[in-house]
Amino acid sequence: MAELEFSELDFFKKRLSSTERLLAIKQQQIDSLLEITRAVNNNMPITALARIYENIIHAQLGVKTIALFIRDKDNIPMCITPGDLPGNIVSYDVTTKFNNISYITPTAAFQDEILKDFEFLIPVMHKKDPVGFALIGSFSNDSNDTKEEKLKFIQTITNVIVVANENKKLFKSQIDQMVMQRELKLAADMQNMLVPSDLPNNERIEVSAFYKPHTNIGGDYYDFIQINENEIAFCISDISGKGIPAAILMANFQANMRILLTRRYSLPQFIEVLNTKVLEITKGEKFITLFIATYSYVTKKMTYVNAGHNPSILYNNGEIHLLDKGCTILGMFDTLPYVNYGELTIEPNSLLINYTDGLSEAANNDGEQFEMERLVAFIQQNNELSVSDFNTKLVDKVIAFKQDTDFDDDITLLSVRFR
């Protein structure tokens, strides 16, 4: 009887000892999870998280070999635990090889000699997409915990590391988006400052503009400049490209143009010098189409140069004139091959329509473009409207023509009534 009691006591001691070891293991695992969580909350780099991860896997769980793959900023898998791993593991195509694996799988199932040093694959899933993979080598022989329990814990900390990396990427992407949106807003504000907001409407001239960029920052530009008491200049332009580079180029272009207009060049000389300035700014990588005209209130003469832009349309004394004399686009050649100019006497109540190709090339569902013929017909039918009403009605007509297709370019109108 005493001997039986001793055996039962010995059994309970062993059971207690085993339970204490298991509790110690679980406490260690909890401490490890806390360590990783603190590191994540402190925004430690992924390389530091990888070192903590490796230490836990190697030292605490007795796993000899580990390869953890996460997605980089371009969503390309990379191994963050290269250590002494051979190159064919570090560069292993996990996306192709494991793309359809969503649960812990023995590596023997893949029948790949390259994976001979590993026993298990642990995928990390986001919804239905894999965002990370861990290749786990053999475990050390100990009785502290079962292999299944160790795998569950490895799966847990692997998920923490991989999800932390995905969250970092998402946060950085959100920050980048916020910075970009702020830059775009600043550029859009700068662009809005460049175009005149107060256009004249008096006994000598009436001017109205419409500008709708395709994106937040377009490449179209227009301007109205009072050269002196009796002379004005106005222009419309299309700058290649969009976004912030176009806004910066636009600012430089406007500054150079306004300075040159004060130097009393002839219009052909002005264009040649402006072309040189554009080349200095763009290094031949951007181009500008431009229609620019000067007009004298005294002589009623308008002189213009069309540098590769859509022909402005003048309704003058009942006749239509397409203003296409000029030169090639600016910024393409060091020296312009030729520069011509046009000069007209403007009759009272004449109407000049300046526009960009976003209007004339607006296409409907059938791919048919609005084109100049429709624009000319519209001018002939609506030339008595105020320029503001003219612009509004014309834009409405283009929108109706396009049916349900989206605009794929900026639209700019600068309409001038000579009184």
Structure characterization notes:
With 419 residues, the chain is an alpha+beta fold. The protein has helices spanning 2-41, 46-60, 87-90, 94-98, 147-194, 243-261, 267-282, 357-360, 371-382, 387-402; strands spanning 66-71, 77-79, 105-106, 118-126, 129-137, 205-212, 220-228, 231-239, 288-296, 301-307, 312-316, 319-323, 326-327, 342-345, 350-355, 411-418. The strands form three sheets. Strands 7, 8, 9, 10, 13 and 14 form a six-stranded mixed β-sheet that branches. A five-stranded antiparallel β-sheet has the order 2-1-5-4-3. A hairpin with a 4-residue loop joins strand 9 (288-296) and strand 10. The longest helix is centred in the middle third of the chain and has 48 residues, at 147-194. The mean pLDDT is 86.
Summarize this, please?
With 419 residues, the protein is of the alpha+beta class. The chain contains 10 helices and 16 strands.
Rg, Å, rounded? 36 Å
Poorly predicted spans: none
The CATH fourth-level homologous superfamily of the largest domain? PPM-type phosphatase domain
Record field, number of beta strands? 16
What is the straight-line distance between the termini? 127 Å
| Mean pLDDT across residues | 86
Shape: elongated
Structural class: alpha+beta
Find the CATH topology of the largest domain. Phosphatase 2c, domain 1
CATH class bucket of the largest domain: Alpha Beta
